[in-house]
Design goal:
alpha/beta, seven-stranded mixed beta sheet, 39% helix, elongated
């Protein structure tokens, strides 16, 4: 166990080193890279898919751009063998290096043979096993594939070799440290690893000649034979053939001469070695002659990739003569790991129960998947909350929706199922064909499509012979001249849509189990059908890749949204997209999701994406971040206003009953819980605020007047800024959303009180005539600086509403007025909360609280203090003007955005602010002003945590100057300017505070203001 742990630690570190090499290969021009990376493919369609995958990675900067990439399909779609494909690679390189006598000299070439039909894992036949998923997420956030693992794992190899070609098998993942490679050899070098003999008997094994050269090859030999040949060491291990081989330039040149004349490719020679009849094998025909004990006579007898025939015999003769004098060094790497992606059963085992063996490589059962359950593997899969997935099932590129059930051990690939029950231990793979037809290929997990004897080959729990017998299917219905085994059996109906294809797959399963009806069998028999082979060749690979990309984007978007729903900080949730970020396709999906989401989730999607756009300076379809930010806060405004609009009074019976009404209200000072009253926090969590009403310089500074006019129009005046206007149309009043409009508040008051309709057209003169006259509304705030933080804007709104209702003879409770004012806030787009209007409309010290809900029902509790406590509070409370102003609307989005985005500091501050407000109430009720001062200090720290702009150098300097005179401090309103509230130390007077401030700040405006708490 200790050895295994050390082995895993070594391999993990090796992988991390390889990742660093990979990143260097992307960033450093001087880093030694592959000159060529070449993939082989089975046909042009597969090659196109490979090229698209490579191009996609190049566009995203995920592959070294200095390397030349090529994908070479078997010519004319005919299988030429892995050796023939290697000759095609040589030809390609020679064409790229026409002036070089030896085109392979001083060139580092990586070749990945990936052109197989993938008969044993048919879901990868079309797209190629090379780009099949590996159950891990790369450090940059991408889902990994075998190709990506090859690129990363082999990034350090070029620096270990001066020249040569490294050939890899596309279905074997080899983990090792490139520093182990000793590239000093002449000819070839086989990369081997030590594996138990039980593993070796199922693969190729090298026999060491005692000098670290290959003596002979032992392919799929019994344990007894391997021991007899001396291939098993004392530890019970063999030198396993990993499929990774290094060819030196001299050996490559020797092979190239077989297909060239005078350094140029000879077409006739090339076709002799690269054709379907000879079908030369890289691993058999190129490597066998390099073993020390090989003989030409035995070479002729070696198993072929295709058929033993005269064409292959002649090719082997020439190959032997060309390269037999070269030898093959044995590079045995240890520690190292050999992972074979072979059969469907092996694949399923790797991604389910065996995944824990590779936890040191960060393998996991569920990668890039939106699932909420465990016990099964998923890659790029979406599983609905009601779906049931069996143990050790494997889902890739799938939607599993509704009440679907998937049986134990079943493998689903490229399917979308809704409310279906899928049996256990089967494979269902969806393939879209050219022409948009659909096929679902179904077979058993243990089934071997390569098995050539239908009577002996299992199929969905039975055999092909039994399948044919019990359904009276003639051999000619399944095979038309091809070899009679599963790979070529025309079992799978061609359908117009996926639902029909799923129905047909279910019929095939029933036929295998003898439960299909005559009608179902007839339907199957009468439908055009294809085999695993023909459907793979007819597959629309581009459509399949598009589907994978869409599903990947869909899942990433869903996972991101789920993290937002779970309350994750938006910046952490964004990490799910890795370095790739939010693509245009993902952005569209997120906007679709936002459109369908409920209030809380909608605003969080908009906020998170707008923050991403702002940070990355990303623009989608000419849409800038601020448009999405406006959608976020516009949604809040709309939802809150719609709720407030329900409570707007019916104006049908309105009549003017007074010629003039004057209202004067105090300002307010906020003490505890500020910001918790602001939507959407108060709607989702409820709010708790403690504040107090206050006179300023001996008066109620917020004043309004409403008068009846003989003329049927509306007059607005704002006396404190000296502006006046006359309005003759309802539409002009309805245009009240501009925060820079001097009369936005006046207009909003008429709308909120129900005099002017919100949206529909209306005749202002008719409305006024019915009411009995025109309306004059003036407002003024005496002696309070703009941006004071004393809540004047909302209190002014409250004064307008209160005055208008009195003007119309409408009796309204304080609670009803609060609701109307909150509606006004949303009409004017200020987005504020409810504490300010309550603070000014209701005198005294109040604890105001609400429960969560779009409709906010305010509970206002007046705080009763002992007389001694009241007097002490009045004496020790002082208000200092900072000489600065700050617009609450500008910082509102920052603070509220912190809450919407689940910024940890914001959530913590808001939660603790509510608790402190309640503790302040208790302290005041007890008359404990010292405790109240300490709580103010704590709240100050929380406010700074919520918004760093709460304070600034000016405020800090003011507080520093009077630090020894005060026990408590707090900012008024949102902070960053306006007034500072302080609790003086006992026996310190306001005059002393004034002298200290004036001595430092002179006549700059920083001073103590005359105020009176209305306690």
């Amino acid at each position: 166990m200790k050895y295994e742990k050390m082995n895993n630690l070594f391999l993990r570190q090796s992988y991390l080193d390889s990742w660093e090499d990979y990143e260097r290969s992307l960033k450093k021009k001087s880093f030694i890279k592959w000159d060529y990376i070449i993939l082989t493919a089975s046909n042009e369609a597969q090659a196109t898919a490979y090229r698209n995958q490579i191009e996609n990675r190049l566009e995203k900067g995920l592959l070294p751009e200095e390397t030349t990439y090529a994908v070479l399909p078997d010519s004319e779609g005919k299988r030429v063998g892995s050796g023939g494909a290697t000759f095609q690679v040589m030809r390609y390189i020679a064409e790229q290096e026409p002036e070089r006598e030896n085109p392979f000299k001083n060139r580092r070439i990586l070749v990945i043979h990936s052109g197989g039909d993938s008969k044993r894992v048919p879901q990868y036949s079309a797209i190629g096993k090379l780009f099949s998923p590996v159950p891990r997420e790369l450090p940059d956030g991408r889902s990994s594939t075998l190709f990506d693992e090859f690129i990363v794992g082999m990034s350090g190899v070029p620096s270990r070799i001066q020249e040569g070609m490294l050939v890899l098998s596309g279905d074997v993942l080899l983990l090792f440290n490139p520093l182990q490679i000793d590239a000093q050899f002449d000819g070839a070098a086989a990369i081997s690893i030590k594996e138990p003999v039980a593993t070796g008997k199922n693969h190729g094994v090298f026999l060491n000649d005692g000098h670290d050269y290959v003596k002979c090859f032992l392919h799929k030999q019994t344990e007894e034979r391997l021991r007899e040949m001396g291939a098993v060491n004392k530890a019970g291990n063999v030198d396993l053939d990993t499929g990774a081989v290094l060819f030196g330039s001299a050996l490559l040149q020797a092979l190239f001469r077989l297909i060239s004349t005078g350094g140029k490719v000879d077409e006739k020679k090339f076709r002799q070695f690269c054709n379907e009849e000879a079908r030369i094998s890289f691993y058999g025909d190129f490597l066998y002659p390099l073993a020390n004990d090989s003989t030409l006579e035995d070479f002729y007898k070696e198993a072929a990739e295709g058929q033993l025939n005269e064409a292959l015999h002649e090719c082997r003769t020439q190959i032997w003569n060309a390269i037999h004098h070269f030898s093959m060094k044995l590079l045995c790497l240890s520690p190292a790991e050999f992972i074979h992606f072979g059969t469907t059963r092996e694949l399923r085992s790797l991604v389910t129960k065996d995944v824990q063996d590779y936890e040191f490589l960060d393998w996991k059962m569920q990668v890039n998947s939106a699932v909420q359950k465990e016990g099964f593997a998923a890659h790029n899969a979406y599983v609905g909350s009601r779906a049931k997935i069996g143990k050790e099932a494997y889902l890739e590129n799938c939607y599993i929706l509704g009440n679907s059930e998937v049986g134990d051990g079943t493998v689903l690939s490229h399917v979308r199922i809704m409310d279906r029950k899928i049996p256990e231990q089967i494979v269902m793979h969806g393939t879209e064909l050219t022409g948009r037809k659909k096929v679902i290929r179904i077979y058993g997990v243990p089934d071997n499509p390569k098995g050539k004897y239908p009577g002996e080959v299992s199929f969905l729990g039975t055999t092909l012979n039994q399948f044919m017998a019990q359904n009276k299917v003639a051999k000619e219905e399944l095979w038309k001249g091809e070899e009679t085994y599963l790979w070529f059996a025309d079992l799978y109906p061609v359908c117009d849509d996926w639902e029909d294809a799923l129905d047909m797959a279910e019929i095939i399963y029933k036929m295998a189990h003898g439960t299909a009806t005559k009608e179902e069998i007839s339907r199957w028999r009468e439908t055009e059908r294809m085999s695993l082979y023909s459907s793979f060749n007819a597959a629309d690979i581009e459509a399949s890749c598009d589907q994978e990309r869409f599903l990947e984007n869909r899942i990433l978007a869903r996972c991101f949204i789920r993290k937002l729903e779970q309350g994750m900080y938006y910046a952490d949730a964004l990490k799910i997209f890795g370095k790739r970020g939010i693509s245009k396709e993902i952005f569209k999906l997120l906007m679709e999701d936002a459109a369908e989401a409920d209030f809380s989730l909608k605003i969080r999607i908009y906020h998170a994406v707008s923050c991403y756009m702002k940070k990355t300076r990303t623009i989608y379809d000419d849409l800038h971040y601020d448009a999405l930010e406006n959608d976020c806060f516009g949604t809040i405004q709309e939802v809150i206003y719609e709720e407030a609009e329900k409570k707007l009074p019916d104006s049908a019976g309105y009549r003017i009953v007074k010629d003039q009404v004057d209202i004067a209200l105090p300002v307010r000072v906020n003490w505890g819980g500020g910001w918790t009253d602001t939507p959407p926090h108060c709607n989702e969590k409820g709010g708790v605020v403690l504040n107090a009403a206050m006179k300023l310089r001996g008066i109620y500074p917020v004043q309004i007047t409403v008068k009846r006019l003989d003329e049927l129009h509306v007059e607005f005046e704002s006396k404190d800024i000296g502006v006046y206007t006359t309005v003759d149309s309802a539409a002009e009043i309805q245009d009240c959303h501009n925060p820079y409009d001097s009369f936005a508040l006046h207009k909003a008051a008429l709308i909120a009180c129900g005099i002017i309709p919100v949206r529909e057209e209306a005749d202002l003169q008719e409305i006024l005539k019915r009411m009995g006259g025109g309306i004059y509304l003036s407002t003024q705030v005496y002696g309070v600086p703009k941006g004071s933080g004393l809540g004047t804007s909302s209190i002014l709104s409250g004064a307008c509403v209160k005055g208008i209702f009195e003007f119309l003879g409408q009796e309204r409770t304080d609670a009803e007025i609060y609701d109307v004012v909150l509606g006004m806030e949303q009409i004017m787009s200020t987005g504020g909360g409810w504490q300010d209007q309550v603070g000014g409309l209701t005198e005294g010290i109040k604890l105001i609280s609400t429960k969560p809900g779009i409709s906010q029902n305010l509970v206002v509790e007046k705080i009763e203090m002992p007389e001694e406590g009241k007097e002490e509070l009045k004496e020790r409370f002082a208000l200092i003007y900072t000489g600065q102003r700050r617009l609450a609307r500008n910082l509102l989005r920052d603070v509220v955005g912190g809450y919407i985005g689940s910024r940890p500091e914001s959530l913590k501050a808001l939660k603790e602010m509510k608790a402190i407000a309640v503790l302040m109430r208790f302290a005041l009720e007890q008359g404990d002003i010292d405790e109240f001062a300490e709580l103010l200090n704590q709240h100050w720290e929380l406010s700074c945590m919520l918004d760093a702009g709460t304070t600034n150098t000016c405020i800090d300097q003011i507080l520093l100057v009077c630090e020894d005179l005060i026990d408590g401090k707090f900012i008024s309103g949102a902070g960053g300017g306006g007034f500072i509230q302080v609790i003086l130390k006992k026996d310190v007077t306001k005059e002393q505070l004034h002298e200290r401030l004036h001595g430092v700040f002179q006549d700059s405006g920083v001073d103590v203001w005359d105020c009176e708490l209305l306690v």
